[in-house]
Specification:
The chain has one domain: Rossmann fold. The longest helix has 18 residues. By secondary structure, the chain is of the alpha/beta class. The chain is about 40% helix and about 15% strand. β7, α11 and β8 form a beta-alpha-beta unit. α3 packs across α4. This is Hydrolase. Keywords: Hydrolase. It holds the Pfam family Abhydrolase_1.
Length: about 325
């Protein structure tokens, strides 16, 4: 372990652990917000619990808050770290660095600053992209990797331009989000329409109104947050080139894939089998794109079994 980072002021505001809406009872007895300056970017993370380190990385267009329903149970066995990646929530919003190589390095720097050289990780959506990059680029850091609900650009086969209507409904935002300027002009002032549509159409079980409002308000409150939300997609040319190199080096660590039966299904496991040798696939019935919020009990059960060897190996006799 390394020494603790220089403390920064405790983050506040609606995006912090103290101010987020609809948290489980007793949440703030275990979890607190903190800011960490990695030397590259200032990152906000919500941390708490005892045991080996577990990194939970959210996807687009969410924040650390996506994990709130799983965090209390996980904190009984792990020291949970749920960050806002660069460009998200209360973290810094630089103009660049949104390729997955940089995002993965951010997470390694964050965990190092918090005293964790080696850890397990769960990544959802864009967090799955980053999880793959972290496992490939920093194999000495990860013990186990669980990923959920994404295809990985540059690893997954690209769908045809004129694919099925179902594929278009799921993927049209990729092209839209990559636009250089027009998307911000179209979405600004209409964040509820655009991001609300994403949540409404990709969930099999509707997310609570207060959660959707929290995500939308976070994006609408700051033009830099809106710009950063598209930056992950604008960096895809760089990410794709990186992944084409990464897939020449197969992953050997244990990988769990989680997918909603009503959304990506077998596609998540099939994606990771293109890159990893030890893949266990788990499909969650009645679930769409947001398993941590739609079916938290089922996701927690799958993670508990998968992470048990990591937890147990860290217990000193």
């Amino acid at each position: 372990m390394t020494s603790s980072p220089t403390p920064l002021p405790t983050p506040g505001g609606p995006g912090s652990a103290a101010r987020a809406p609809g948290l489980p009872d007793g949440f703030t007895d275990t979890f607190t917000s903190r800011s960490v300056d990695t030397g590259r970017v200032r990152l906000h993370a919500v941390t708490g619990g005892e045991g080996p380190a577990l990194l939970l990385l959210c996807g687009w267009p969410q924040t650390w808050y996506a994990w709130r329903l799983l965090m209390p149970a996980l904190a009984r066995d792990f020291h949970v770290v749920a960050p806002d990646p660069r460009g998200v929530g209360l973290s810094g919003k630089p103009l660049d660095g949104y390729d997955t190589g940089t995002l993965a390095t951010d997470m390694v720097a964050l965990m190092e600053a918090l005293g964790h050289r080696r850890f397990a990780m769960v990544g959802h959506d864009v967090g799955m992209w980053t999880g793959y990059a972290l496992a490939a680029d920093h194999p000495d850091r990860l013990d186990r990797l669980a990923v959920a609900e994404a295809a990985i650009p540059g690893l997954s086969p690209s769908p045809p331009l004129f694919g099925s209507g179902d594929a278009n409904d799921r993927l049209w935002h990729f092209g839209f989000n990559r636009l250089p300027d027009l998307n911000e002009q179209l979405v600004s002032g209409r964040e509820e329409l655009y991001f609300g549509h994403q949540f409404a159409t990709k969930a099999a079980k509707a997310l609570p109104d207060h959660a959707v409002r929290h995500y939308v308000d976070t994006l609408a409150a700051d033009p830099e947050a809106l710009r950063s939300s598209f930056a992950f997609y604008r960096a895809l040319d760089t990410t794709i080139a990186q992944n084409q190199q990464r897939k020449t080096r197969r992953l050997t660590l244990p990988v769990l894939t989680l997918a909603g039966a009503e959304n990506l299904g077998e596609a998540v496991g099939n994606t990771m089998r293109l890159a990893a040798d030890d893949v266990e696939s788990h499909i969650l019935p009645g679930c769409g794109h947001y398993p941590a919020e739609e079916v938290p009990e089922a996701m927690l059960a799958a993670l508990t079994v998968f992470l048990a060897p990591y937890r147990d190996s860290s217990i000193t006799p």
